[in-house]
Batch of 3 targets.
Target 1
Amino acid sequence: MSLNAAKELKAVLPLEEQLTITRALVKQELSPLTVKIDLEGLYPESFLRQLGGVDGYRQHLSMARPDGETDMGAAIQTMGAVSHECLSTGFAVWCQDTCAWYLQNAANPVVRDAWLPKLASGEVLGGTGMSNTMKAFANIEPLRLKGKRVDGGYIVNGSLPWVSNLGENHVFGTLFALEGSENQTIMALVDCSAEGFTLRQSAHFTALEGTRTFACFFENVFIPDEMIIDDDGAAFLKRARAGIVLLQLGMGVGNVQSCIDLCREVEPLLGHVNGYLDDRPDELQEELDDAVDACMALAEDPFEKSEEFFREVLQLRLSAGELALRASQSAMLHTGAKGYLRTAPAQRKLRESYFVAIVTPAIKHLRKELDALSRAA
């Protein structure tokens, strides 16, 4: 099926067809840009919008699908197909998918109905400003945003250091503490064009430079009631958290598989000496396949809210980060000096794998959460 034909489809495609279309789009539109994304910080906006045009963002969104189903596994594998080529772009896909997931789980149908179709189609691009929230709920750092109730909405002040996949006409989801209340938090969708809201590029990264990552400053930003996702932030997070973390596995799957593929590419030339290395491609492939099977099983019910289910999600997410580090190191060692060239995929995969390990929830965050859950059991 051609990309043009795919854009005309209204029904949800079977997974294999969706992956075929996604891989074709990656090869045609993304692969020629990967080095520029990595070294020059190019933001692949055209590709991201085109991916929405071939339904790359709606598999996990029952309210954006004609069949009313939720296929989290398909969303993870589509993200994996993008991340296999470029994790920077895969991360932007995660931001888009997750922003839409917030709306899928919205208690307020007004904001959901107004914005979910636009995010699911790629008409509007979105980010996720929930790193601070997840750290705050894990007692790692305080909430950085505070809101005051006013007529028709809230006035919000504060700042978030890094939020990705943003731009002047983008949106993102975030949570703020309600002034005058001891524990109440509010989940909202923020329009980057709102008065008093400012984006500022305050850092440059050794990887993921093409993700439009900005510091976000709120100076008396009015967020109307129509943009409130849930006025009970804690309840929202418990409802949405499993899906947020599960979606990240798409980045890990793509990164690890690409590292395995790099190891295999050099086998005809270097297999006679690479056989002395640890973490050989067949060993890594077996571990990855097992992780994908576990991921697909958990993805069958992303709305599950039990602590035991979330513990399994966190454990698998931790394993993905650890496996990415091992696989990328293996790819570097297997490819040797050629992998160390400035434009070589192997050294890029190594840098990307560290992002899988440190993006919220990072390995240390995951281990803290798992320890807390085990103590509470």
Target 2
Amino acid sequence: MEFDLIWLALGIAAAGFFIGYGLINFNNPNAKSFSEIFEEEEHELITENDVHDFMGISKEDAKYLIKEHPDVPHIVINNKVYYPRAKLREWLENPGE
């Protein structure tokens, strides 16, 4: 009986959060989605071995990414290449800039 009330309270609290957040951003097209609320990607780095999965390209293409596109946002630390997730996503969304 005790756990039933706890689950009920958690469900009501979660529903209140989602309904409240939806009402706040009802007519705001620039509002973050629910998945973006919980993501912490501002400073997240992607390794050179994992960038192919993020971009949806083959591993072979990812190896030549910097050579063919030197303007791709990346940093090199101890001879390892890392890609900032947010800047890479922006680079992919705005090709040619």
Target 3
Amino acid sequence: MKINAILPEKGRDLRLDLFRGIANWAIFLDHIPDNAVNWITTRNWGFSDAADLFVFISGYTASFVYARMMIERGFLVGATRLFKRVWQLYVAHIILFVIYIVAISFLAQRFGDSEIINEFNVAGLVDHATQTLGQGLLLKFKPVNLDVLPLYIVLMGFFPPVLWLMLRQPDLTMAASIVLWLSAWWFGWNFTAYPAGTWYFDPYCWQVMFVFGSWCALGGARKAAALINSKITLYLCVAYLIFALIMTMAGRFSDFGAMFPEWLYSAFNPNDKTFMAPYRFLHFVVVAVMVVRLVPKTWLGLEWRVFDPAIVCGQQSLAVFCVGVFLSFVAHFTLILSSGSLLAQILVSLAGIAIMTTVAYYISWSKRQDKPAAKAAPPKATAGASA
């Protein structure tokens, strides 16, 4: 079957690294309860948040990295390279999972705070340790805040055939993804969790964000360029962003929310994150359109040093994400033990971001050391020596 997708240009798109780094910082901040600093993240100003951005960029970069490989070297090679990445993600999740539950259990025993075990959903380890750990290996048991990585693993695991189809019928594949999402949203399809309930991020629904990222990477964004750059689109996008801000604020402040009709308020509150409500997906699309308009790939500002920390964190995304999830628990527990004042919230937030950034810079430096040093060019022979 003929390749109909438009392969992305070679070379790194710093926008992806920048926004993925920002998404990692935002996820860290959002995972700290009762933290005033997380008011700066996008979840408080509209329907979508950093999780949407993380999944979108993951789908975009997966296509950017593996599409050309699948075309040039065949489906089997491309699929095995994708599965290699899935294995890396799975190992990272298991390591984080073990460290996370050990830290929670240790602190609960050390400070005699048994409630923290229930708060972070690890109570099952006390009574049914073997079964609970086994379900953790199957990605069905997840402590609080460990939901994004299992979702990423599942989406990447099923991506090889999706990418094969995307390369040949990108629009049809995107349409099929939308149909699956809306069907799961309407009928409530979801993966089961242990010991009860379902996944917080429904893979049947969240796959649409991942596939949308792939579709944009493989020519969708270029084909929609005229629509993206239209003045009418700009006005509609701004209007929708204002509407999303108003509805989000209505959900945050009860007195403000009481000013709206119940049917309007309840349509957007609470925000349906599990099943990726249509208004949430639309909000992310609008944000993406505005970013493309305002921050082109060739924008020289991407080279400014002020953006380096976020870009480096985006380039080392997996390690930074794992460190950030663990640090969010440490920050939460630190605030519990301390006064929990605004100053304390600011300090633990800044400290966490500083540690994440330090880890990213160290990994980046370490990888450079693994590369062989460039050999110096031999000195040119002088005229006298050649004579």
